[in-house]
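so the lab meeting is tmrw and i was supposed to have these ready like two days ago... anyway. pasting both below. for each one the top line is the aa sequence and the line under it is the structure tokens. i havent really looked at them closely yet so no promises
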Amino acid sequence: MTNARYNVIGVGNAIVDVISAAPETLLQELGLDKGVMTLIDGERGEELYAAMGAKVETSGGSAANTLAGIASLGGTGAYIGKVKDDGLGRVFRDDLMKTGVDYRTQLSGDGPPTARCLIFVTSDAERTMQTCLGISVELGADDIEQEAIAAAEITYLEGYLFDPPEAKKAFVKAAELAHAADRKVALSLSDAFCVERHRAEFMHLISGHVDILFANEAEITSLFEVESFDEAVKLTAGHCEIAALTQGANGCVVVEKGAMHAVDAQPVDKVVDTTGAGDLYAAGFLYGLTRGFELPNCGAIGSLAAAEVISHYGARPETPLADLLAASGL
């Protein structure tokens, strides 16, 4: 893949992340389902925001985190995601661009406010996400620029954005534009509950438009409605060129044309917060892929990036990933 301005362009929910450490009792008091991403309205968002303790607020969203990770590795990236021209919207744009990612969507002058994700992190490093999607769900096909998509080696689609009908059209348009420009398309399934809501449509998208699939164990077994991860791995081979399937501390399996490569997880002294682990895994994997690395090495770089982000609070690297990669010898 050559003559590309960007290694990767991401399409996703443009969200400001609000992260707070929380005791188990607070989750119970608020009636939250631990470890689950739940969509909420603005009123519920205000209630939960007020109940949170000390907060860290940063630009976020799954695909945006992945692009920030690619930039930290030394790659080039751009991002398409809808925010309002409000305080949080400007924070999102400026914060993302400071990471080195080119923001390719105009701030909207009207409509709902910029989206935010309230993340409660318990002492076992599990995250419980309450997401108010705001204007991010209004992203549609008109927001997909042909020039921007054609300028990237890989277009990366965030599964979390798949709920709104207009976003589905945006995904298809982005994939078609990418393939017309002889580029690749990657998809992250993002969440097992999202897969359950849209299983048939995801299967159609994967089989018809996706070259590279990212999923964790819960997501891929849900997609194929099987109990066994090994069985899901075998089924994946017939639907896309490459699948990178993660199992947390058990590492990942990378599948290409029926060949399977098992890659160990990177050891971590202490898991502090699993927020962003999948996003940063995708960052490392895609970075390696755009550098022409062998697939096991791509998986190892993904593991390296994921290990860094779970060692501290927040979904963005605190240590430059390029430095960690250089020191790793990969």
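ok protien two:
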Amino acid sequence: MQNIPHLKNIDSGNFFLIAGPCAVESEEICMAVAEKMVTITDKLAIPYIFKASYRKANRTRLDSFTGIGDQKALSILGKVKEQFNVPITTDIHSVEEVEAAAQVADVLQIPAFLCRQTDLLVAAAKTGRFISIKKGQFMSPEAMQFAVKKIQDSGNDRVALMERGTTFGYGDLVVDFRSIPVMQHFKVPVILDCTHSLQQPNQASGVTGGKPALISTIAKAGIAVGVDGLFIETHPNPSEAKSDGANMLSLEKVENLLSSLVKIRQSIQ
């Protein structure tokens, strides 16, 4: 992912990091998270991409938070990019969203449930932006080569894959760390989603649960097996977050975790 604009610390030998709040809730929260993350990642020489979804389309209940409005949220992401000189990534869910998101985002993220949607992948590829595709919870790592090929056959070789767990029963996910080298075999960067891998979907309340206490476990294991990058959602007050609060890492815990991960990375190089 070295050819992403504004991506710093690319010669450090570290893993790269995609991190931020699950959704754009407000300018204040995005700015606070970005400022903290830039400070930490510059200190540790970690290549960093800011993440926040400008819209949340995949929700269990009709009354779940979906966003503050597309244009308002994209404008906030643009301000983060300009003020902190960092690349931005955000989800896209339909062909109609691609153009507007690509005006701001340096990396377009394809959600796991949409990783087989050919029209969406082709439209994203044609923007020329870097494309990060989450492996579907229902997909084998071997099958993700075809998602990669859709991007490449559309004239874009700037693509990465993301592991985010596999459905286990009705309300849990498991991470098969064998999927990381399997997907790296496709000659693309592979990212480990340390927060969504710990989701507990399909809860009776209609609100997805999670196990954030295990984020460090998942992250350390991922670095140990040689993953190229990590994805971590973080928030100043996860319990008050409007989306996926049950999965996010508290912002105050980020630096200690990243410091440990850098040491693991150094030990295996």
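from a quick look at the 2nd one: Residues 27-44 form the longest helix (18 residues). The mean pLDDT is 93. will dig more after coffe
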